[in-house]
Structures are given as structure tokens and as C-alpha cells.
Amino acid sequence: MSALHIKQGATSHSAYNLRPNFSDTVETHTLTVLVDNEPGVLARVIGLFSGRGYNIESLTVAEVDHTGHHSRITIVTTGTPQVIEQIKAQLSRIVPVHRVNDLTVEGPSVERELALLKVEGKGEHRVEALRLADIFRAKVVDSTLTSFVFEITGTPEKIDAFSELMRPLGLVELARTGVAALARSGE
């Protein structure tokens, strides 16, 4: 029997089929990475993503422990479950990384983002923008005779919804912080 014939007749019991069953579905995951607060760490984390062609949807970084000199990086990324597992494993191997958590799979978490939206308009558009801001609990943080700057906090979906409603009313500029997230406490 030739090698070609054996390969074609291989069954699912072949050693080539022993890898875990991963889905091809692209998922969004929120990862938190506790790192040393030192020069170059963020560049190394970002380099891991760009070097392997992974996309970052959102990125926030801040020092969270002044005495221990630790920063927390929150990354929202997308990929298949296999890609997400690769990202977590590769992040864990970077030397100044202390801990990698995938809040998406570890249980309930709280995610918030802050956005500033500049909306220009007069007359009915101005009144409608203020009405919608009230519904979404957005605050007016700056106002002129022709524009407002709104501040809104909430889930990324809430900010997306608010900004989409503001577009036809005169949205001219949008700035977003990116997601900050924490795991909820166990009950």
C-alpha cells in the first residue's frame, strides 16, 4: 500500500486529528495584564500584537500600585478561541508580566468607558441633542452658542448607541478612553 493511499484512508483516530476542537468563530475578549511599571513594557505588549497581526480594539493603561510599581493594561481584542489562547500564552511569557486574566471567560465583570462628544447644531437639533443626552445620562461639560461637548460613561455599547444618535444631530468629533474593566467579586 502506498503512502498516498494510507493518507487518503486515514480516519479521525489519526495523530493529526488530536488537537483540541477550536471554533472558527471570531470572539471579542477583554484581557487584563498586570505588569511592572517601567519603560518599554507597553511597547513589548503592543509589539506582540502587531508582530503577529492581532488587532487591538481598545487599550487602556495606568499605574495601579504606586508602591509596587505595577500598571494594569486592559486590552479588548478579537480572534478565534485558538488565537485568544495564543495571545494569553504569549503575553504570559513576557518577562515584566505578572498576571494575565481573560475577564470574558473568568466570570462576570464590570466594563466602563468614558467618551467626549462634540455636537454642533442650532434650533431643533440642539434641543434634541440635549434631550437625548438627558436620556443617556450624558453631562454637558462645555457649551457655546453653536455646540456642546458631552461626557458620557458606560459600556462600549451604550457609547456606540449615543454616538450613533448624535451623528445626524451634528456630531463632529469623538474621543474615547477605551475600556476599563474589573472582575466582579465572588458571591
Automatic annotation (TrEMBL):
Enzyme class: transferase
Keywords linked to the UniProt accession: Amino-acid biosynthesis, Branched-chain amino acid biosynthesis, Transferase
Keyword Oxidoreductase: no
Keyword Mitochondrion included in the entry's annotation: no
Database matches in InterPro entries: Acetalactate_synth_ssu, Acetolactate_synth/TF_NikR_C, Acetolactate_synth_ssu_C, ACT-like_dom_sf, ACT_dom, AHAS_ACT, AHAS_small-like_ACT
Pathways involved: Amino-acid biosynthesis; L-valine biosynthesis; L-valine from pyruvate: step 1/4; Amino-acid biosynthesis; L-isoleucine biosynthesis; L-isoleucine from 2-oxobutanoate: step 1/4
Annotated ranges, domain ACT: 30-105
Catalytic activity: 2 pyruvate + H(+) = (2S)-2-acetolactate + CO2
Molecular-function GO terms, alphabetical: acetolactate synthase activity; acetolactate synthase regulator activity
Annotated GO biological process: isoleucine biosynthetic process; L-valine biosynthetic process
One GO cellular component term: cytosol
Pfam annotation, one family: ALS_ss_C
Recorded superkingdom: Bacteria
EC number: 2.2.1.6
SUPFAM superfamilies named in the record: ACT-like
Described function: Catalyzes the conversion of 2 pyruvate molecules into acetolactate in the first common step of the biosynthetic pathway of the branched-amino acids such as leucine, isoleucine, and valine.
Assembly notes: Dimer of large and small chains.
NCBIfam families registered for this protein in UniProt: acolac_sm, PRK11895.1
Similarity comment: family membership: Belongs to the acetolactate synthase small subunit family.
Name this polypeptide is given: Acetolactate synthase small subunit
